[in-house]
Amino acid sequence: MTVHGENKDIIIIPSEVVALGEQLKVFTLPSPSNNSSKGRVELFQVSNNLVYQIKNHSFSKGSKINNNDDMANDVYHYTRDNETLKSVILTNEQDRSEAYLRENGSFKFALKYDIVYNLIGFYYSESITESEKEYSNQVSSQSGKEQGKNDRFLTLRDYHDLLVDSNDSQWANISLEVLKIALEKISNTVEEAEDIYYKIDDNKILEFLAKIVSKIASNLPKSIPPLLPNSAPEDIQNSMKIVLATNILISLVPKKAYLELIKFKGTDNTISIDTEVKKFNDYLESNELSIEEKKLLMQAAISVGMNNDSSSDGKDKNKTIKKPIVPKKPRVAVGRGAIDGFFKKK
Amino acid sequence: MVSLPPTVLTSLGTLHTKTYYSEIPEVIKNGVSSSPVILGVDEAGRGPVMGPMVYGISYCTKEYQDTVLIPKYAFDDSKKLTDNIRRNLFSKMYDQNGDGTGEIEIDGVGYATTAITPVDISSGMLRYPPSQNYNLNEQAHDVTMNLIQGLVEKGVTIDHVYVDTVGPPVSYQKKLETRFPNIKFTVAKKADSLYCVVSVASVVAKVTRDIILEQMKSNENEILGSGYPSDPKTTAWLAKNQKQLFAWPQSLVRFSWQTCQTLIKEDKHKIGMVPIEWEEDYINSKKNMSKQWTKPKTDNKKKVITLDNWFL
Amino acid sequence: MNSIDLSSSNSAKEYLGHLVPCKIRYNGPSDEFTDNFNMDNEEMEVLNNDVADESKQVYVNYIRGRKIIGQDVLPIFGEGSKAFLTENVISSDATMEEEFDNTESINAKPIATLNKLINYERDGNESRLSSELQKFQEYIELNDIIHNN
């Protein structure tokens, strides 16, 4: 067997996966955000019904959001072929005559992954974007009725089939148990003749996401710059954290889900994101910040609630759309070909 | 056989800059003499592409210089002395008989050296970003001032310091006077042939560097040459020993020298050097410059931070 | 990658992974490491003198005269996690499920364990090293909040 550096990879595996010692079958699903600029997510499922995502990372690289500034200010540089200035050296510490070099400086790692986001992506599958920037524009362009929405309660098995047939054939790699756990988070259920039927529900989705937002807000990464000076009152600071935490999720959910989330009034179990966003915006309007500063901050917070009927177009269309028919497409050869092609490329 | 000088022993087996201070001569330590203490500073091995750059200081009372060193010994600019004479003169300062008994003939002179290693020279000069570079002059000045400071801390009252310099003397003299307001300074080119105490320092530095370089040979028959890039023996060694990835042993070679950079970059000896690109190669690159033209005027705060655009 | 085989995880060999701050235009083995690229223990002792947390200690090395300063990335992933050096084995047999029939499958086989994965930046640019590692840790923690419910 020929041995070349480029043939080698570094992958970091969590302890519980290492302990299982299994052959991990890797598959992909579409990005849960339905954002066409994002690639498919690379996943594997292990026998104890946990799913992991394989991510790739290279250091010596700045945030995408700061890329232009970082380049202009000589903070970061990339090679002519747009790679990071990073390579890998591998040394056998027991036998230094064995060492490898690899031009590509990235490494892989596996992290826990909740496929509930792909269910949300499926639910809002008509809400498609090309870039995260579109999320700032509050008009939702797509028709409101979603392919993933259906008025029927389905059994677990039927949901699985639905996903395989109308979202992505690789849902076949997700076990029913894993799907069940995910569905339970965002569905209404009914039980009949000892079978449980699931129907994904907008409100359940928003409730689930709002809980995540609360958790992110109370553990907000320190590196994220605040939108307000320290002198702002504590409750406004908290509202700001909710705004920032909600924005974090833009990368994970379709635009429609995001737009609904920022108007979410909350339930007994969750905060009202709508209230927090308004509180934050009201503060910006009433406090003594300069007009210019205010403008910038409000843009950063996406000025939620400033334009209440912005998505009314979509709502109107909703009413006229026919009841959805659960698509029961056979697996078509074209689809498989595309997937095969995907793997070939890798 | 004469034993290795203590200034050399301190610097063997390390990648890093080391300093050695001799015992302070009795006559100075006890303040027996009323004659003021003078100190000379000189350097050896600034230009070579190989081996350490050594800073040497030597000090004695003015009286000892005038009554013992000048009349009895042939100290001069180290370059004017033969290797044997230099080594012999230095040996009289640390171990006259080479028997380790510690009997010292020139017992009125104290000395110290700092050997700045190729690793420290190169890594100082090749920091990133380039604004962080620690150039050779700064390294030299800092080492000199630290040597003097070390002696002051040991309780030696220095009256006058004579410094041989290759750079502009005036600004350097000013720098020294500011740092040590209680000491007189004379900074001059060719000070090593003008002031005996500087000649002693130059011998100490030169012998220390030469022996350290000798000790770095991988075998006795290896020919390194003087270490100067102009020395054909040195260039022959560089050509013969260049490796595709790491080029040369870092303990020996100053990678920051243009000679090395060119040999690596141009692969003059056609050994198939592995190309390595560094971030400084891309400073002010077209790609970066183009972003300056298109730099948006909007404030950072306007940007919406998401998981992917912030963390990936 | 179609699969990662941890079942026959024959990874007794212990490697170190170094993410170095330059682009080395070469892929493949090298025999120059027997007497090169050894950690500068002397300098590390000085720099780690007041670093109490072992996972935060810094590593010092050199490439062509450039000093590089690094920190291990693995502690961020928590105890028990393991970094593997894998080699991609391409096979055209049909051991995978039928839908991958007739296609080449890539199986990543561990050939060694990486005891450390050290990310380096240049001497003088240490602030980038710490800020990127900090941010990476934040990312891992954030992922845990988002995907661990």
From TrEMBL, chain A:
Residues 117-261 form the Ribonuclease H2 subunit B wHTH domain. It comes from the Eukaryota. Residues 307-326 are annotated as: Disordered. The keyword Nuclease does not apply. InterPro entries: RNase_H2_suB (IPR040456), RNase_H2_suB_wHTH (IPR019024), Rnh202_N (IPR041195). Residues 20-114 form the Rnh202 triple barrel domain. Its main location: nucleus. Non catalytic subunit of RNase H2, an endonuclease that specifically degrades the RNA of RNA:DNA hybrids. Participates in DNA replication, possibly by mediating the removal of lagging-strand Okazaki fragment RNA primers during DNA replication. Mediates the excision of single ribonucleotides from DNA:RNA duplexes. This is Ribonuclease H2 subunit B. It comes from Vanderwaltozyma polyspora (strain ATCC 22028 / DSM 70294 / BCRC 21397 / CBS 2163 / NBRC 10782 / NRRL Y-8283 / UCD 57-17).
UniProtKB/TrEMBL annotation, chain B:
GO terms for cellular component: nucleus; ribonuclease H2 complex. GO terms for molecular function: metal ion binding; RNA binding; RNA-DNA hybrid ribonuclease activity. A divalent metal cation binds at D42, E43, D164. It catalyses: Endonucleolytic cleavage to 5'-phosphomonoester. Its cofactor is Mn(2+); Mg(2+). Endonuclease that specifically degrades the RNA of RNA-DNA hybrids. This is Ribonuclease. It comes from Vanderwaltozyma polyspora (strain ATCC 22028 / DSM 70294 / BCRC 21397 / CBS 2163 / NBRC 10782 / NRRL Y-8283 / UCD 57-17).
UniProtKB/TrEMBL annotation, chain C:
It comes from the Eukaryota. InterPro entries: RNase_H2_suC (IPR013924). GO terms for biological process: RNA catabolic process. One of its GO terms (cellular component) is ribonuclease H2 complex. This is Uncharacterized protein.
